[in-house]
Amino acid sequence: MDARLKQAVAVGRFGSFSKAAEAVNVTQSAVTKSVAELERRVGFPIFLRTSRGVVPTSEGRAFLERATRLLADADELLSEASRTDPFSGSLRIGIFPPTFEWMLAKPLEVLVRRHPRLLLDITSGAKERGVQLLDQGDIDVAIGLASTFSDKARFRVEPVATIAAALFVRRGHPLHALAAPAAEDMARYDMVLPTQIWDLSLYPILSRIYGHAEPNRVHRIENFSLQCKVIENTDAFGVVDLEITKTEYFQSRFAVVPGMKAPATAGIVCAMRDQWTPKPAVGALVGILQQVHAEGLLNSDIQSRLFGHECAALPLEDTPRQR
């Protein structure tokens, strides 16, 4: 592995050429020269030099992240532990979009209990970032919509689950008393959406409510637990997977809006680079995901582990709900 990468990563870690030189046991001038050579090679500055030290540029930060992963991969490849225990290394998982993070809660619990020496590196982001990271080899497996990965020959996909969406509100919401709310009834209230609408099947619901106009007031919240917090304490409505609506947790606090289910379902898959042999941990994760979601084991996990609503309420002054 190019020693210049190790030196550049050390500079990013310590924010100093002199401290990086001490860490990698070379002279400061050698580190300075290595970084300068790298910057000429990649065609952009990796660091900004300041009176207080050095900080990565935006391009440099992305470069250092990839360099760090490459160095970790090299260490893992050459380590004795990886040869004696194939589950002792890292497993880099991507979830795209982050709205699907709840699907991983129970499978991760099973995975780390079975393989305690496994090190997890989990990232999330937009669907487009998932394709990019998988292409670059920066993640071992991506979890996301089949439509994101299945149409690309360079990826191999394994089906995990099928999900469908519905709109939901807090129990006691004005819409809860209506047998079949009309679109104009829904349009009076704020909406809670993930930063990125995860599937095209949601658009027919939105078009029924708002027509061609954009919603006037939308909370953009990626984390589903935080979406629930807003919906439970206001008159806003949100989008939920139908599997979650079957849980005791959901039914004690929320209600599905009648007649507002998505007309289609979306497939969730695990995607891997087709030309690479997956790590044993990837196969283990895929198998656990398929088992958990096929057998409905995720329900108890959702209501007991995923949400942070059970903690004692802080003594804050009540504020009136939105009307």
UniProtKB/TrEMBL annotation:
<feature type="domain" description="HTH lysR-type">
    <location>
        <begin position="1"/>
        <end position="57"/>
    </location>
</feature>
<dbReference type="InterPro" id="IPR000847">
    <property type="entry name" value="LysR_HTH_N"/>
</dbReference>
<dbReference type="Pfam" id="PF00126">
    <property type="entry name" value="HTH_1"/>
</dbReference>
<dbReference type="GO" id="GO:0003700">
    <property type="term" value="F:DNA-binding transcription factor activity"/>
</dbReference>
<dbReference type="InterPro" id="IPR036390">
    <property type="entry name" value="WH_DNA-bd_sf"/>
</dbReference>
<keyword id="KW-0238">DNA-binding</keyword>
<dbReference type="GO" id="GO:0032993">
    <property type="term" value="C:protein-DNA complex"/>
</dbReference>
<comment type="similarity">
    <text>Belongs to the LysR transcriptional regulatory family.</text>
</comment>
<dbReference type="InterPro" id="IPR005119">
    <property type="entry name" value="LysR_subst-bd"/>
</dbReference>
<dbReference type="InterPro" id="IPR036388">
    <property type="entry name" value="WH-like_DNA-bd_sf"/>
</dbReference>
<keyword id="KW-0804">Transcription</keyword>
<dbReference type="GO" id="GO:0003677">
    <property type="term" value="F:DNA binding"/>
</dbReference>
<dbReference type="Pfam" id="PF03466">
    <property type="entry name" value="LysR_substrate"/>
</dbReference>
<protein>
    <submittedName>
        <fullName>HTH-type transcriptional regulator HdfR</fullName>
    </submittedName>
</protein>
<keyword id="KW-0805">Transcription regulation</keyword>
